[in-house]
Every structure is written in structure tokens, then in C-alpha cells.
Automatic annotation (TrEMBL):
SUPFAM superfamilies associated with the record: CoA-dependent acyltransferases
A GO biological process held by the record: triglyceride biosynthetic process
Family: In the N-terminal section; belongs to the long-chain O-acyltransferase family.
Name recorded for this polypeptide: Diacylglycerol O-acyltransferase
Gene: LOC125544540
Sequence ranges assigned to domain O-acyltransferase WSD1 C-terminal in this UniProt record: 359-503
Pathway it works in: Glycerolipid metabolism; triacylglycerol biosynthesis; Lipid metabolism
Listed Basic and acidic residues bias regions: 23-36
GO MF annotation terms: diacylglycerol O-acyltransferase activity; long-chain-alcohol O-fatty-acyltransferase activity
Organism: Triticum urartu
Alphabetical UniProt keywords: Acyltransferase, Endoplasmic reticulum, Membrane, Transferase, Transmembrane, Transmembrane helix
Main location as per UniProt: membrane
Transmembrane regions listed in the UniProt entry: 222-240, 401-426
Amino acid sequence: MTERMDRRRGSALRKRPPAIDATRAESETGEGREEPVSPTGRLFREPHFSCYIVSVFGLGARVDLAAVRAGLEATLARHPRFCSIQVMDELEDATPKWVRTTVNLDDHVVVPDLEPTGTSADPDRALESYVSSLSTLPMDHSRPLWELHVLDFPTSDADAAVVLRVHHSVGDGVSLLSLFIACTRRAADPDALPELPTTGAARRSGPVYALPSRPLLAPSSWGALAALAAWVVSLLLLAWHTLVDVLCFSATATSMLRDPRTLFKGAEGVEFRPKRFVNRTLSLDDVKYVKNTMNCTVNDVLLGVTSAALSRFYFRKTGESGRKSIKVRSTLLVNLRKTPGLHALATMMQSGKDNGAEWGNRLGYMILPFHIAMHDDDPLEYVRKATKVARRKKSSMESIFTYWSASMIMKIFGIKAAASLCYGMMRNTTLSFSNMAGPTEQVVFYGHPIVYIAPSVYGHPHALTMHYQSYMNIIKLVLAVEEEQFPDAHELLDDFAVSLKLIREAASGKNTRHT
């Protein structure tokens, strides 16, 4: 990053103002409204949880900066959270609130002056290094907490890229992705909003619990009685699984239960260290082929591919016997708030008001185990084990409890106590996992076709975070890694690609044997 960019940012990042005049901010906007920051949003303000979402959008055309600025001014910059600052009123309850302010796009649209020799010699590396450098830069909290970085040079995957960096207190990943997609239009119909998958599993970060449906009873039917008995048993299993998961979660948060020390686990203070973001394109068609063969979900297949890739990487690096089996655990954030539809989000940006649509972080946690072992003779075993784990987790209300308990602890004991428990939960697990579904057709961002979407996050105490993002017929796998611990992150990406290939070939062989 050049000296010119450093000078441009210097005034904003050198020193944060000690206080913000909320009255002045309200009078400038004419809104006169305040909204409290959500409990989860307040957690993301804590030093050990100061998380940022970083999303790279590959474009199929060079950037028309004037069109991008005009589009932002008419949409994203009008959203209530994107034109608000967080204000702490020490005279009342010391609870941070969102207060409207004036948005100056010059403070939020960043066009770095990069060395042409670097971007032309190795453009993929230049993009990767620039995005990674954002994990070392603070954000000026006297302004709305978002930035759009414009990188107008071609790479192997796209003609240009834009990078959206947003503080996690602004919203959860699912809501922010939906909001961004609401700024786009269908490539096939420039006047129409695109569509996102509508199923619950597709719109969340992973598997969620499923309450069993109560059967319709016919009093004289033995079949109906059997259905009622099965329904009661399923409810009892839901209660039992929830109890077990809650006890496990509590033991993890209080450091009574910890993951073993492995090469994946970050050292103390890893949340403050620079992260490198690397990505690889995978075939959604291959994943769906395995899904159909194994009669499971896309998420189950991705969990299995992850276990296989981590296993290949682990045993190659450690040289340990492939007959050894260990378990590492991932924290998985589950969005518990119903995400507004794209039309509601577009209306929200057009009017500058929430119009009754819910927004903000309402996140529960789920602890998900990953099986580390070698199954060279049967790669589909990774998918079988992952499917079993996912189905077990769907029969639990763990994420509901973790959100509720964190909110109660925050109300009773304060934000520091809640943050300490959440930090303990993440420090005693090994990695983070997320899977989100994007549009199934190509979309256009202010006149620029999007060719890929690659989101990630940093600021939490894990050295390895994995995100899967589907879009059209591809899946972008994004790894956020602590640079010193994973200097060979691209090798790990290779392991994911090879693992999917082997699992796909095994699924094809299974189908061949059955025909």
C-alpha cells in the first residue's frame, strides 16, 4: 500500500474523537431518532471481538467509478445502519445507540494508488495482499462503519474487484449479503431484483434445529397412534440433545472442556494478528452430484469435504499415522433473525427508514465437531459422518439457548461477563465455519456484472476460518488464516479441491456400481 493511501487515511485513523455530539448529529440529519445497538452488536464492540466482515466481489467489467458512487448514494448509503454512527451516552445508561449522521462518500469509497508493476506482474497476489492488509487497519468510529475499496485491475478470475468492509456490529453476514444483493439487479432483466434461495438452511450459516411437526390424528387409527408416539419421542430427543449441547457449550465457555492443541488451533491473542484471505473456486455441480448420490444436503457435503481437507493437511504436515483419529470443533454462527426480503431491503434503502423490517445481529452459537482421520479407501465416509453430525445438530435448540443465555447474562452481569463467556467458547474451540447461498443467476452491481462473491471475517480468536459462498454454478471457498501459523494457506486450498474431486469420483463410482 502506497504512502498516498496512508496519508489519505491518516486523518481518519490517527486518533478517534473522545466523544460525538449526538444532538448535533441528529439535527444535521433531521431524523431525531436513536436505536439501541443489539446485544450481539455490543459484543462485537469488545476488544477481543472487534470483528469485521470483508467481502470481495469480482466484476466482469472495469470499474465505472462515477456509476458506483451514484449507485451507493441512492442505495447503500441510505440504509439506516450505513448512515448511522454509534454513540455512547454516559449520562444515561452507557448503552451504545445508533444515531443518524451525514454520509460523505469520500470517506467510504477508497481507490488505492497501487504500484502498476505489482498489479500487472502478479495481479492475483496483489489483490490477495491488499485485502489481507485491511485486517491491520482500524476503522474510524466517528463515521458510519463501512468502506468500499475499488481495485480496478484484472485478475485471473475477474476484470476488476470491489471489497466491502463492514464492522460486524452493523449486521450479521446473511443480512449484509442480502442487503448487498438488494443493490444489484438481474443481468437478464436490469430492472428486476434477483432472487435468493428461500429455504431456511440456505439463508442461514449452517444446520439449525427443526421442530417436529405435530401429526394429524385419527382416533381409531393405529397408524395415527404410532405417528403420535414417534412425535413424542422426537420431542424428547430434541429436549435431550438440547440439554447435552447446552452442557457441552457451558463447559467449553468456562474452559472445563477444551479442544486438543493441534496445528489448526490459534495461539493466545490470535484475534489481534493480521489475517490472510485466500480463496478457491469449487464446482457447485460436483457438490450437488454428491448430495444427490448420498441423499443429503449441500451443507452436509461441504462439511464432509472440510473434514477430508483438514485430514489431508493435518497428516501430511504432522507425519502422524493415518490410523489416528482426532476431533476438533468449530463454532458456527446461526442467524436467528428472519432476514428481510430483497424487496423490503430495497424499499428500506430507498426510503432511508426501516419500514418495520427487522435488522441487526441476532446470532446464536453452535459447536460443530470435525472428524480428522484418513479414509483413503472410502472418501464418502467423510460425507456420511458429516451428515450424521448435521442431522444430530438439527435435533437441538443449542443456538436458541446460546443467544438467550448471552442476552440474559448481559442484562444481569453486563457486557464484560457475556463477552468473557463468548471469548472462552471460541478460544476453547479450534476454527470457524460458515456456508451461505447466493443468487443462482448472474447479477449486476451498478452496471458491473458480478462473477464471484468471496466473503470472510476477522477479529475473532481463531487462526482458521472457512467460508463457503455459492453463486450461480460455483462455490467460493474463502480461508481467513493467521499468516505466521499458515504460511502455506494455498496448500490447504489445494487439499479442499483434491478432497472434493476424490469424493465426487467416489460418488460416481457408487452410482456406476448401482446401475
